[in-house]
């Protein structure tokens, strides 16, 4: 048990062993004093001075009991019924019956609970700490004359050229200058194989440069780079308080009442107050307060090892109970890299002119289709023209003035508002259409197709096996396109042609809860925030989606959705096992102690063993069942 149950763990990097020994008395003064008092008491007993030993041991125990009682009064006034009443009663009763050694053990258990919790928490958040420790501090800025200067990463500005030496962490987001190079992204994405980047390709902060020195051109400041956002999410995750810990208030009253009842009946039956004290020293359910947060930190650490950042401990509890999973289609179930299949231009617009104008407008859109349209135009040697003005209506389309012409691109309904003569495009299975109007006239369509991710079907099957009752697809695309994708994955419920508010309404009204929503784009932010658990997939940085989400998958791997649910279930299982293991052992010890068979000192030591067993069991959340990461 701890004097400050639920205190946020220290996120600083741990010092060396000698440093930790010197730091211990400062961080845990009550533990240090208790150990010192215990040593003096033992010395006095060895020297044949039981009287002073009893006065010293009893006096310090009562000082600690008074301190805890004062804090307990404040908690009760605030409406929190903790189990510290048992500890205070156990200390007072053992002192009253002369069992001062047992009272010192209870005091050590009480004051040392925070130290034990911190140690276990440090073990549990191993991967979370590893991410924090790798945060770059310096960058090697290269000047035009070729000289290199070491500067704090906070001073790096977009456009700066940075030298990254072998085995160094990339300090900020940038693009590669010069030859290709290999980077190790395993600490972020969980992918074990190096990734090759070529000149001009983006390189994200936090990844490890492999074997050769490379030059990057910074594209973001340190604060706006991917790794800074990951560190912020990791800190939020490590500092969050597990909901199971808050449930301690629920367990406290019945457990305290049960313990006092057993102790009182034992005293009445034996007529000996010593038995009352012997029962209470084994009735301190520290596992309820310590094991749960350790298990939840372990679960979040395991998720981070798999490239999944779970922002708070409460999300793990929701993941464990998920019954409905909703997916956005484009960029989530599909790769989000649509290929241009055909350009259907209406007279008097030539196909190439239609594609060029469309790409010119789409360069001002954040939709995943926009990048594909621009790439298709460039592949045909068509250079998009700058727009005099442009604005986007999220999920609908974009309107721009290009070379004096008003170009409207997007869904049929959006384009029809400016071009009533729009004609619906016939589509094949899995195809989608981008409609275009120029100066109020329907100009034609671009037909595109986006491939379903290879692991999509396996992910749906695993989610079903994990107990998910309903899987649905929410998309702004046409019904035929969405139904084709859903049918290929065995999904029977689809909601096509959805606006953001339609998605939010659907998620909020889902009958089987909790609801998990998976998306990848800015347009998904409202529905991710509305879901019980919002998952942003492939969110590398401070996008609206990753900020709104409860879970961020750092790589574009749909299977990590099932991984997150599986880790949530495993973590909750281990946390509850640890809680009930501790409570069951405490109850068993109470019943045995009620017979008078366990002396107070041995009972107090036995309770310490129970605490250790519960915490060791909670650390199982760090790993999955055999064969899983």
TrEMBL record:
Pfam families: E1-E2_ATPase, Hydrolase. It is an enzyme of class 3 (hydrolase). Residues 141-234 form the P-type ATPase A domain. One of its GO terms (cellular component) is plasma membrane. InterPro entries: ATPase_P-typ_cyto_dom_N, ATPase_P-typ_P_site, ATPase_P-typ_TM_dom_sf, ATPase_P-typ_transduc_dom_A_sf, ATPase_P-type_domA, Cation_Transport_ATPase_IB, HAD-like_sf, HAD_sf. The chain crosses the membrane at residues 28-48, 55-73, 85-110, 251-269, 275-297, 574-594. This is Cadmium-translocating P-type ATPase. The gene is cadA.
